[in-house]
Sequence to fold (323 residues):
Amino acid sequence: MKRVRSGKFVAAVMASVALWCVPAHGGGLTIPPEAQQALNKIYEGDAGAAIPLARALEQAQPEHPLGFALEAEALWWNRYCSALELKYGIIEAWKRSKDPDDDAYLKLTDHVVQLAEAQLAKEDTAEMHVYAGMGWALKARLYGLRGENRNAAHAGVNARTEMLRALELDPQMADATAGLGIYNYYVATLPGIVKVIRFFMGIPGGDKEAGLRQMQTGIQDGVLLRVDVRFIYAKSVRMYDQKYEEALGIALPLIEQYPNNAIFQLLVGNLNAELGRNEKAAEFFLAAQKAVAAPSGCGDGSGCGGCVAHIRDLADAALNSLR
Fold:
């Protein structure tokens, strides 16, 4: 894949990182402005444009997992987009088969974990446990999407272990609280037969109400996971609790902050449709179509061009379902 080659750009990133890279010893994560810019690009619906920013961070500090975690996050959103389907009236990423690009994604998530573990071998910090947990969580997402439940469970348990250790070292680490909340909620809402399998696999149990509270903490105070956890929270109470009004209230700030993210527009439109507000739902599906003018980051191997076409088709299908 094409790498950032601008010496001036990387030099500027290195100068910024030099002011940031002192490890945090309490009070949560800190990230440089370039990392926040990459996150904004992802959540603005332009994941492809986030990749050069992430790679510049990788070059500026190759022993730190942040840049690699951001690149994996950007790639994940394009994989999530490509898996979206309108099924049973719900727009969601349903199970899909393996993709040729999955191996590169998993290699990247492995690298995030390895870099964090290398730093932890030097000093046991909450920050690096969060990054290790993120690496495992990114792996669990893909395994879950592919229906590889055993692999997803293994990665999820490892993510939980890392987040718990992070909170032992820094109880104010909101990103770790958010990650633990996602685990607690999902494990607590598993179907009965899956819970039996969980018992025999020795997977730690979850706590649904605690998970919801922990996700709320992530929404309020998280740094890397704040937007992710809001999106996951809204989808979860929609899918597993059928609390569509509550889910809508959680999701609306996403499109208020990131109106050009077509995936967020589809979610809000879908929730309005489930509430019987077809006219309002149509507005958001049309907004999703308008939001997918080709992002500037397409063409770098991120696959976002295919996502653009897929979103248009999904919005068309959703509009037709209203009629």
Remarks:
- The first helix runs from residue 7 to 20.
- Strands lie at 84-87, 90-93.
